[in-house]
Request: fold
Amino acid sequence: MNLAISTLISMQFLMYSNSGSRYEQRIKPIIYVAMLYTSMSVSYHFIGVVAHEYLLALLIFYLVDKKQAILLVIITPFVRMLYMLFVDGHLTTVNVLASLVVAGMAIFYMKVFDKYVSNQTLSMILSEIFIVATSLFFAPFIPHVVIYSIFNQPTNWIIRATVAIITILITRKVYFQVTNLQNKNIQLQKEVIFDKLTGFFNYKKFEQDILLGPDKQTNTGIAVIDLDYFKNVNDTYGHEAGNKVLQEFSLFLRESLAYKLNSKDLGIYRYGGEEFV
Reply:
């Protein structure tokens, strides 16, 4: 449960800070593989089997990123085979084929239940139950899936399904609590550095970026725009009209510089009143 929550939160942080960097996109599978391999190791050493190896990918599918999760499901059997190879020192063709079939069925279950079951929690639970059932069905062909000496097949299935449901419910609840806090934190950060009226950066952000900016030497060009006769607008038509003028001008400025706004090389700030930088 802790591994699942840690993985989800790590990936969610990357999504929040996503700048389109290829390195950020590549680090998600690395995080997943590390957590998956750890969960397999913990599972094997504590209960003698590898259980719920698709649970992480399933949680990511429903809570974080569906496309990313499909890639992670495809990765899972290979991590699983690597772990089997590490434990047993050998791997058969039957082991490989059975592992790949389970992965294919896992993708099928997640897509079908996500499409046809409107309740997310129920869809997650049904997907995991079917994945568990499929894993146990192919257990004779995949080492370290079932403890034959302790549990019989029906009991094993019930225990696995129960553990999966409990993990899904608790992880989902904790995940949403954490992401809600993240959303509130991000909103507060935006309120600190953005001007509400125009949507541009405020003077505080200008001070951070330019006046108190980094020590490294950079070439910086600054253009200051002042709206002439703006005081006359406020005096004649009132402050609401003045605010409307500022919003319209901000829209014009944003549209005129749209080709540069996605670049880190350009920042637009409301310096104060009717002045923009």
